[in-house]
């Protein structure tokens, strides 16, 4: 990669410098997340397309496993949900691969620089979408998801960069911008994907891959993003000589100062452990609820994909408003506590929903949760990290959350089909109360 000017010292990191970096990050995240979310509404049709192909040994094997899973429940599960379950399995695979790769990508960014790690991550993302463009069969499409899961480091590296250029006082507001990018992309990306899926290009491959238009648009977004980052993003990783000066400072400490520093380090390590555990447990429960929501809305109100899109759009728009207002201004600890409390309320409401009005009330609380929890937890973790280990620790934090995302849908849907909707959501709500209690006691005021 092209050499860049050395990262500025802490003194040189003016508000104007931070603002310019955050502008680059926000634009690049929008491109990246729009590319990522384009495919989400297409999963059912994509998988139906591959399912209809003859002699599809890999896909047939996966469906046999899913059918054995379905048959283990005393409640019948409609074959209508086969593709939804397969989509969930692919999502869990993607999250598991993220859990494996995130700490590695973070550590590499500490050693070689954020910009370098981000650009190589972009190369992996481009390769993933190129495989999707060429995915005329399911194994190729599966390979694209595997490559994407292993290489997707954009979000955690963007957070590390935002942490590099912000101060403790501005950290919450800075990371809220990442949340806003998420909300915008997850609101409009799926709509763009659905629109592009209806368009056909005059290409030979379109006959074998009817989703090539969306895939090529996704590829275009990533190529533009990569070029934008290459030319506009400088290196932000703290200078190594700054770390050496810090070591010199430590050597000159008195015994009392060394004791205080050691105690703070132990306290920060314990705090990071608590936040990682909270991230894992929260996403374990919350991602299970997210995955079960289409089943519930179909059972209760016979929701179509369009109806589900409207519900998710409502959640996304409300979350983006909250991130641009409350989340940016409030202290991160309060943001997390608010989000977890709202999560518990939403679960208990979902256990009793009998009308669409009640569903949207519960969705409003889900929007508060989506806006607050992960952004607040990330801000809290970033405040406890030393400059030279920022990428590694943030990678570990993301890995903990991805473990929750990988296992949550399986566990929650098992409970949903075994014990029923009311029991599943009451158990989920009780779990959220437990997570909220852990955080209220562990974080203090």
Automatic annotation (TrEMBL):
Pfam name, any one: MFS_1
Keyword vocabulary terms for this entry: Membrane, Transmembrane, Transmembrane helix, Transport
Membrane spanning stretches: 21-43, 83-105, 117-135, 141-163, 175-198, 210-231, 269-289, 309-327, 334-353, 359-383, 403-419, 425-443
Domain Major facilitator superfamily (MFS) profile residues, every copy: 21-445
Molecular function GO terms recorded: transmembrane transporter activity
Membrane disposition: Multi-pass membrane protein
PANTHER family listed in its UniProt record: MAJOR FACILITATOR SUPERFAMILY DOMAIN-CONTAINING PROTEIN 10 (PTHR23504:SF31)
Protein name: MFS general substrate transporter
High-level lineage: Eukaryota, Fungi, Dikarya, Ascomycota, Pezizomycotina
């Amino acid at each position: 990669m092209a050499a860049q000017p050395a990262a500025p010292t802490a003194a040189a990191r003016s508000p104007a410098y931070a603002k310019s970096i955050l502008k680059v990050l926000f634009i690049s995240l929008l491109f990246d997340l729009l590319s990522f979310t384009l495919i989400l509404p297409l999963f059912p049709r994509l998988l139906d397309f591959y399912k209809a192909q003859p002699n599809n040994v890999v896909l047939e094997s996966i469906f046999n496993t899913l059918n054995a899973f379905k048959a283990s429940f005393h409640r019948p599960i409609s074959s209508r949900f086969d593709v939804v379950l397969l989509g969930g399995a692919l999502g869990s695979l993607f999250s598991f691969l993220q859990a494996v790769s995130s700490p590695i990508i973070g550590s590499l960014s500490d050693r070689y620089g954020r910009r370098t790690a981000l650009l190589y991550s972009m190369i992996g993302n481009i390769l993933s979408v190129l495989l999707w463009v060429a995915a005329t069969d399911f194994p190729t499409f599966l390979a694209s998801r595997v490559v994407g899961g292993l290489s997707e480091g954009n979000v955690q590296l963007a957070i590390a960069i935002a942490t590099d250029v912000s101060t403790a006082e501005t950290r919450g507001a800075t990371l809220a911008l990442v949340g806003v990018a998420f909300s915008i992309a997850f609101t409009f990306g799926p709509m763009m994907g659905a629109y592009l899926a209806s368009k056909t290009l005059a290409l030979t491959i379109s006959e074998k891959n009817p989703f090539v238009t969306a895939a090529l648009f996704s590829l275009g977004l990533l190529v533009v993003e990569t070029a934008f980052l290459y030319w506009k993003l400088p290196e932000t990783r703290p200078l190594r000589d700054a770390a050496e000066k810090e070591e010199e400072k430590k050597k000159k400490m008195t015994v009392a100062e060394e004791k205080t520093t050691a105690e703070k380090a132990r306290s920060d390590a314990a705090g990071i452990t608590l936040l990682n555990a909270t991230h894992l447990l929260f996403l374990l429960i919350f991602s299970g609820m997210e995955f079960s929501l289409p089943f519930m809305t179909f059972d209760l109100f016979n929701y179509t994909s369009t109806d589900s899109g409207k519900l998710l759009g409502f959640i996304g728009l409300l979350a983006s408003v909250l991130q641009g207002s409350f989340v940016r201004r409030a202290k991160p600890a309060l943001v997390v506590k608010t989000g977890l409390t709202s999560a518990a309320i939403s679960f208990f409401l979902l256990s009793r929903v009998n009308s669409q009005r009640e569903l949207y009330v519960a969705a409003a609380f889900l929007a508060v949760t989506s806006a607050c929890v992960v952004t607040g937890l990330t801000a809290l973790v970033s405040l406890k990290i030393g400059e030279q280990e920022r990428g590694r620790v943030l990678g570990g934090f993301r890995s903990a959350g991805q473990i929750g995302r990988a296992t949550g849908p399986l566990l929650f849907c098992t409970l949903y089909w075994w014990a029923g909707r009311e029991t599943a959501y009451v158990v989920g709500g009780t779990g959220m109360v437990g997570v909220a209690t852990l955080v209220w006691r562990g974080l203090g005021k």
